[in-house]
């Protein structure tokens, strides 16, 4: 069979054209890769090998660290903290880029020490279907519809807590940590499993001491002690899971949500996420409460406005013949108190930043953020920028009578990884402030201007106060 003449001519031509196309595609890809590689890293310094600039960040006012960096390098700069190379960003647009617009390029993460202590299957470290599944389970237990039923239980914890402080000189932060941990245990385990609560507290208190330690697992180090406590904590949780399965009772608390048969979570996954919730629920809320007590004590007119609002709720309940126990509806009638909480969250900025990790090389504003680097949106800088909040160092709850500009107020983060438990945290604060302002008076003891750091910014010495019943 003869081959047509055009085939003899076109076949080499097609081959050469294909070869040329492949070469051009390869050249274009190489140019793109080379161009990406030529992108500069953000300006900045990385400090000492491995240690980096960890101590500079955690041992002083974080505002000083951030402000000096921003002044020298601008709103995006590199550093090295807790064993990780990092890029820090300090404006609302950049925060939105990382947390919302391009959130798929930045997975949530923590330093290696914290990741190992909380457990690698905890919600904080994941994206995609597994993260959304866990978020749904957490939300089921802490959304308003669920926590409406535990207002009276939280109130009972508050009443017992405040009664134990009466006439005492207390360390506000330490006592608030005890309160918020008891409230966290209530939301996780309900009223059951009382037998294990003291064991859970003992182990967790050891564990938390190592959260910001360097991941050096040698005998005697904080990290080593914390990992031992973490193992014991997992064993206690295994006993609780076994006990619940034997009882075959359905529970509406967080543990019950995790244990649902159709959810298919392993015991290790449940343990990692229970420990993660303990971590998320304790120190941050306790810090907010400590700062709130301080700011109210320093601003008598604001304290008076909050007290009058809370007393009005009490009088209305008395006039209508209602039970004096607080309800969810009562907590919706506290706009002044709620604005005080918002302003505390802004001024104190308990979470100075959050951790994300680039899942691939990312270009932002002409800089390369390499794959694997941590990216830290600086909430504190955004909350303290005069461009976002005039006179930012002034404690002024009235500024929240008008909603802040988008992406300028992010005390609970932003996007799909924002804190799912923010409504529960607000409820715990509102209920405590109701009883604190209507039944007690307090005075701050000792120096009141000092601030201590590591990792959260706190009033000096945890804010010692003396509390007494109103007469």
Automatic annotation (TrEMBL):
Transmembrane spans:
12-33
Q: In which pathway does it act?
A: Plant hormone degradation; abscisic acid degradation
The membrane-topology field of this record reads: Single-pass membrane protein
Q: What is its EC number?
A: 1.14.14.137
Q: Does the keyword Repeat apply?
A: no
Q: Which InterPro entries match?
A: Cyt_P450 (IPR001128), Cyt_P450_CS (IPR017972), Cyt_P450_E_grp-I (IPR002401), Cyt_P450_sf (IPR036396)
- Reactions accelerated catalytically: 2-cis-(+)-abscisate + reduced [NADPH--hemoprotein reductase] + O2 = (+)-8'-hydroxyabscisate + oxidized [NADPH--hemoprotein reductase] + H2O + H(+)
Q: What is this protein called?
A: (+)-abscisic acid 8'-hydroxylase
Q: Which gene encodes it?
A: LOC104604090
């Amino acid at each position: 069979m003869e081959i047509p003449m055009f085939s003899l001519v076109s076949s080499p031509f097609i081959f050469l054209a294909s070869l040329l196309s492949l070469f051009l595609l390869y050249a274009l890809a190489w140019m793109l890769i080379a161009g990406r590689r030529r992108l500069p890293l953000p300006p900045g310094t990385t400090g000492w090998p491995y240690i980096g600039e960890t101590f500079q960040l955690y041992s002083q006012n974080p505002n000083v660290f951030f402000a000096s960096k921003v002044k020298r390098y601008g709103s995006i700069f590199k550093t090295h903290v807790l064993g990780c190379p990092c890029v820090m960003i300090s404006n609302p647009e950049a925060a939105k880029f990382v947390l919302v617009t391009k959130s798929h390029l930045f997975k949530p993460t923590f330093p290696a020490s914290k990741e190992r202590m909380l457990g690698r299957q905890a919600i904080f470290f994941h994206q995609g279907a597994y993260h959304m599944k866990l978020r749904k389970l957490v939300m089921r237990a802490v959304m308003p519809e669920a926590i409406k039923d535990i207002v009276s239980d939280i109130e009972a914890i508050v009443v017992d807590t405040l009664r134990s402080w009466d006439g005492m000189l207390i360390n506000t932060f330490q006592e608030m940590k005890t309160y918020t941990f008891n409230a966290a245990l209530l939301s996780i385990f309900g009223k059951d499993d009382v037998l294990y609560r003291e064991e859970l507290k003992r182990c967790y208190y050891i564990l938390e001491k190592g959260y910001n330690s360097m991941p050096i697992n040698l005998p005697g180090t904080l990290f080593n002690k914390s990992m031992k406590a973490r193992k014991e904590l997992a064993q206690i949780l295994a006993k609780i899971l076994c006990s619940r399965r034997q009882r075959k009772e359905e529970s509406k608390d967080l543990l019950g949500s995790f244990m649902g048969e159709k959810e298919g979570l392993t015991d290790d996954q449940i343990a990692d996420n229970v420990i993660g919730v303990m971590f998320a629920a304790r120190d941050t809320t306790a810090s907010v409460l400590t700062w709130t007590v301080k700011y109210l004590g320093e601003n008598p007119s604001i304290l008076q406005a909050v007290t009058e609002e809370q007393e009005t709720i009490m009088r209305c309940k008395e006039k209508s013949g209602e039970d004096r126990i607080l309800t969810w509806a009562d907590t919706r009638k506290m706009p002044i108190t709620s604005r005080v909480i918002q302003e505390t969250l802004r001024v104190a900025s308990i979470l100075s930043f959050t951790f994300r990790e680039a899942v691939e090389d990312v270009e932002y504003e002409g800089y390369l953020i390499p794959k694997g680097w941590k990216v830290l949106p600086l909430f504190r800088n955004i909350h303290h920028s005069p461009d976002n909040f005039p006179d930012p160092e002034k404690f002024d709850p009235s500024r929240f009578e008008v909603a802040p500009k988008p992406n300028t107020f992010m005390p609970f983060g932003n996007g799909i990884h924002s804190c799912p438990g923010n409504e529960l945290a607000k409820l715990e604060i509102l209920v405590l402030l109701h009883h604190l302002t209507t039944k007690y008076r307090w005075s701050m003891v000792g120096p009141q201007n000092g601030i201590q750091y590591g990792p959260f910014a706190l009033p000096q010495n945890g804010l010692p106060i003396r509390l007494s019943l109103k007469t």
